[in-house]
Design a protein that fits this description.
single chain; mainly alpha; Arc Repressor Mutant, subunit A; Tetracycline Repressor, domain 2; 12 helices; 0% strand
């Protein structure tokens, strides 16, 4: 399920994202029972537990003990709510990386911080990057990564390209883990059940598999599919090792451009 940000009223959405001093906190008289922030926090809780498919104004209202209609005074629609919750949850990501040990150490820490963040909030991966939210926290994170990458000494145009390279790599790699964690509940079958069933049938229906795909078979014969820690689910460990290796190669490439 892909969700596109910025589908609501542009002025209302951008105004809420960049509202700065929150008027509900400085308004004279008793504070209202609900605020935009309370609603957004509840929406994040719903999305964390039920994903984007389970997010609606009704379910957020239920989380707060209210009706969905009670939320519309504060947030015009679910479209604006998605923008707000996406930008707000980004606050959890670190923004201060020590560059004393070098840009590569900082970039590595940045990548693993994002890995952990996406696994904590997998619904964020469903918000398409094709149309950014353009919220303040999104720009804070961009500023953070730019600070790390400008420390390489590479020119701005190259730095901009590297922002896309790193963010795309992290999101793509961690999505495999996020989806593998969700698969058993969504399909009613564990990863082990799925793989054992399908791989056994593959050998049955493709008896000449080794002849057709000699390089794939070579990987198996060289134990390339064997994981070091069998206590970690196979797909998750595979993704971690792939992420580690891929990140190192990308950073090696950046380092090579700086010399």
């Amino acid at each position: 399920m892909v969700v596109y940000a910025g589908q609501g009223d542009a002025r209302r959405s951008m105004g809420l994202l960049w509202r700065g001093a929150r008027t509900e906190d400085v308004r004279p008289g008793p504070k209202p029972a609900l605020t935009v922030d309370i609603i957004v926090d509840a929406a994040i809780t719903v999305a964390d537990s039920a994903g984007m498919a389970g997010l609606s104004m009704r379910t957020v209202g239920e989380q707060l003990g209210r009706t969905g209609m009670a939320l519309y005074t504060y947030v015009p629609s679910k479209n604006e709510l998605v923008d707000l919750m996406y930008d707000k949850v980004l606050i959890e990501l670190p923004t201060d990386y020590d560059l004393d040990a070098g840009w590569r150490t900082a970039a590595t820490a940045w990548a693993w911080d994002h890995w952990a963040f996406y696994l904590k909030h997998p619904w964020v991966l469903q918000v398409s990057q094709a149309r950014p939210v353009l919220g303040p926290n999104e720009y804070v994170l961009l500023e953070t990564l730019l600070r790390i990458l400008f420390a390489t000494g590479l020119p701005p145009k190259m730095v901009k390209r590297l922002v896309g390279t790193l963010t795309g790599f992290v999101r793509g790699a961690v999505q495999v883990v996020a989806e593998s964690r969700q698969a058993p509940a969504a399909t009613g079958m564990s990863d082990d059940e799925w793989w054992y069933t399908r791989s056994a049938l593959l050998m049955e229906v493709a008896g000449d598999f080794a002849e057709q795909f000699p390089l794939v078979t070579l990987l198996d014969s060289e134990q390339a599919y064997q994981m070091e820690d069998e206590t970690v689910p196979y797909l998750e460990q595979e993704a971690i090792e792939t992420f580690t290796a891929g990140l190192a190669v990308i950073l090696d490439g950046i380092e090579a451009r700086t010399t």
